């Protein structure tokens, strides 16, 4: 009976781990929607919460195209949420573009943008 309980616990942790690992970005955005600003318009999202893309993002009259992000899962073990973002097309002068790194301390809630 003890072996079965251990197997069930291992299975549940494994299931939760892989469910988080494979969570689609569109599902995460739908869950986060009530907490986002009302005038934020988000286009089609693809990929996962770890590495994904939003085709178009509009907020307060500004539009960002091709927003890509890559979040480091390993940094979570140190209490940091880190990653990088890229948006726009640098070759197109009519559109806003940029790239940068971000870091958020899960314990001290400090934000760093580079």
UniProtKB/TrEMBL annotation:
Keywords: Cell inner membrane, Cell membrane, Membrane, Protein transport, Transmembrane, Transport. The keyword Iron does not apply. Pfam families: T2SSN (PF01203). GO terms for cellular component: plasma membrane; type II protein secretion system complex. It is found in: Cell inner membrane. Its main location: membrane. InterPro entries: T2SS_protein-GspN. One of its GO terms (biological process) is protein secretion by the type II secretion system. The keyword Membrane applies. This is Type II secretion system protein N.
